[in-house]
Q: What sequence folds into this?
RNA sequence: GGGCCUGUAGCUCAAUGGUUAGAGCAGGGCGCUCAUAACGCCUUGGUUGGGGGUUCGAGUCCCUCCGGGCCUACCA
């Protein structure tokens, strides 16, 4: 048994996430966590809401609520949706937790002691009307290059020229529209990543098994242009983790907070501490996952994220942990994803385009979404959601191939033998062949799941289901029954046991349907089918079962058209 | 501008430089009747975006052109 630490990129707090966010980190990490648990490994699966930063403050202001209250509410909303999608986090924390405050301040203090923090005075735009410093992209104005009137302070989206906010003609606040702006001097802390460049490069180069998407992004940041730059890790905001040197004040940094990208990854660790404390356990309970001097030596740590998060997880966060000179557990494998597009364009939280998690659950059970999203995960390139593809895939894979198999086996048994596993008969060459085929496919499935090959795993699982239909067609117990009822009994006994095997194997993808199958069979035996022949003898003759309702109702054309129309515009 | 990824059947995707480029869906044919008109078997369908090159051999490596996407450090 191994110990596996799994983290999903933290969803930002400012609203309900769309399906593109879900498939990029939370869902595949859940798939992996469920599979690892199913194989008997000890798993710690961590996620949290990322609650700091300017967008959180603005979203709270828009909602007319204090930011702390807004975050508490949105955290609960996101937690409820996570439960709705059956995301099996051991803990779903909050980056605003006391644990994260303590740990972030502690690590900053360690970095300072190691000489890896520099103080830099710089000029930033301050908006008197908004009462805050404005990040570059929250300043709008006319592009001096192309004349586009809604250019942002960091870059003109029209001509793609990179800008400085002071370049803009007629600059104004993107928040309030106010032109009462001024440039003020402010002091910030920088993480001296430049000083750690060689150390980081050596570390990344040692990760030869990482996806190319992950390493190419990291190496580009390390070596592009002038190479890796120091990164500002503080901001002039009210909401966040106060800048401190461990438990001590940091002279000159009063009223400032750490930048969210400094404290967000630290929350992976802090959330594990939150978990320990919530369980009434001591610090050693979480330290054995994160401190190599306290038991984390044998932990395998895997991170899941969308490609936009890669620089922070390959550079800043490792630099933070390495630079602390404390024995923190570093990531062993980073699984990164491309983007899921929606019907010809991008999903967009800010524009309300696409299907959001709450809407998805309001029209169909989570298994439908889990199956489609995972079997179409954007691994090698961006992928696209269309309602036609969703309907076709779900109907064929879930309703026809798996659902109907469960239906035909249980109903046939009920009509000929009653709702008990039938007795008598023996297995012949056909059954031997089935067991051999199942074993081969199952072993392949295990390898793919181990390797986090999400789409390929789903295809292999589906192939496993297909074997059941092929067997039934060949064995044809409905014909056998007429001339040799005992032989038919053996065939049906095998088929019923096959359903249990499918429940176990499918559980990481479609947990609810798997539970329904298991419950219908009157079993609670989730042991992994290491030996397929033995697994197919789990339910003995005479064991009672119930015939389940339709496992997956098909999506009708009218439903699809209705949803297509309903989700064609932007969210209200 | 620079960098990275990507382009394979109508659609979604596979294929350590090595037989005749494969699956699923969709289309066509046959079979079955237990089942959610489901399932099984067979089958049509490709100048691997264009062009050039390296090689005994290229979807794969190199050059170039065309299309799609992402990143480019103060959104997170």
A:
């Amino acid at each position: 048994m191994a110990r596996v630490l799994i983290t999903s990129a933290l969803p930002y707090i400012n609203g309900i996430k769309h399906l593109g966010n879900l498939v990029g980190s939370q869902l595949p990490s859940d798939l992996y966590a469920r599979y690892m648990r199913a194989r008997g490994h000890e798993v710690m699966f961590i996620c949290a809401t990322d609650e700091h930063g300017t967008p959180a403050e603005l979203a709270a202001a828009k909602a007319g609520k204090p930011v702390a209250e807004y975050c508490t509410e949105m955290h609960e909303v996101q937690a409820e949706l996570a439960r709705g999608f059956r995301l099996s986090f051991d803990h779903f924390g909050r980056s605003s937790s006391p644990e994260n405050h303590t740990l972030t301040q502690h690590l900053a203090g360690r970095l300072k002691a190691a000489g890896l923090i520099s103080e830099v005075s710089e000029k930033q735009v301050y908006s008197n009307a908004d009462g805050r410093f404005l990040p570059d992209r929250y300043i709008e104005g006319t592009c001096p290059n192309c004349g586009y009137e809604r250019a942002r302070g960091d870059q003109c989206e029209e001509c793609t020229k990179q800008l400085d906010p002071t370049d803009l003609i007629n600059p104004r606040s993107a928040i309030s529209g106010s032109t009462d702006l001024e440039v003020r001097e402010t002091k910030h802390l920088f993480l001296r990543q430049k000083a750690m460049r060689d150390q980081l490069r050596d570390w990344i180069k040692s990760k030869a098994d990482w996806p190319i998407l992950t390493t190419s992004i990291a190496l580009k940041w390390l070596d592009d242009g002038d190479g890796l730059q120091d990164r500002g890790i503080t901001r002039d905001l009210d909401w966040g983790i106060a800048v401190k040197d461990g438990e001590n004040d940091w002279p000159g940094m009063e009223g400032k907070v750490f930048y969210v990208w400094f404290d967000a990854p630290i929350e992976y660790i802090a959330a594990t501490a939150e978990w320990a404390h919530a369980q009434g356990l001591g610090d050693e309970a979480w330290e054995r996952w994160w401190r190599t001097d306290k038991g984390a030596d044998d932990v395998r740590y895997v991170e899941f994220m969308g490609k936009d998060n890669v620089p922070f997880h390959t550079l800043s966060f490792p630099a933070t942990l390495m630079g602390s000179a404390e024995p923190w557990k570093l990531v062993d494998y980073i699984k990164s994803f491309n983007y899921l597009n929606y019907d010809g364009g991008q999903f967009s939280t800010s524009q309300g385009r696409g299907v959001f998690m709450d809407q998805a659950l309001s029209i169909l059970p989570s298994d439908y979404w889990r199956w489609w999203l995972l079997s179409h995960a954007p691994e090698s390139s961006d992928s696209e959601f269309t309602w036609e593809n969703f309907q076709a895939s779900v109907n064929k894979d879930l309703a026809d191939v798996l659902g109907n198999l469960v239906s035909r086996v249980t109903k046939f048994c009920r009509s000929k033998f009653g709702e008990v596993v039938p007795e008598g008969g023996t297995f012949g060459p056909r059954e031997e062949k089935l067991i051999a085929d199942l074993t081969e496919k199952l072993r392949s499935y295990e390898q793919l799941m181990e390797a986090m090959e999400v789409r390929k795993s789903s295809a292999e699982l589906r192939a496993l289901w297909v074997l059941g239909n092929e067997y039934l067609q060949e064995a044809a117990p409905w014909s056998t029954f007429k001339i040799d009822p005992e032989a038919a009994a053996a065939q049906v006994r095998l088929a019923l046991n096959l359903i249990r095997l499918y429940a176990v194997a499918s559980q990481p993808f479609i947990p609810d349907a798997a539970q329904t199958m298991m419950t219908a069979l009157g079993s609670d035996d989730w042991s992994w089918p290491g030996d397929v022949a033995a697994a197919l003898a789990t339910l003995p003759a005479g064991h009672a079962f119930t015939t389940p309702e339709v496992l997956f109702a098909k999506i009708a054309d009218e439903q699809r058209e209705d949803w297509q129309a309903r989700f064609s515009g932007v969210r209200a």
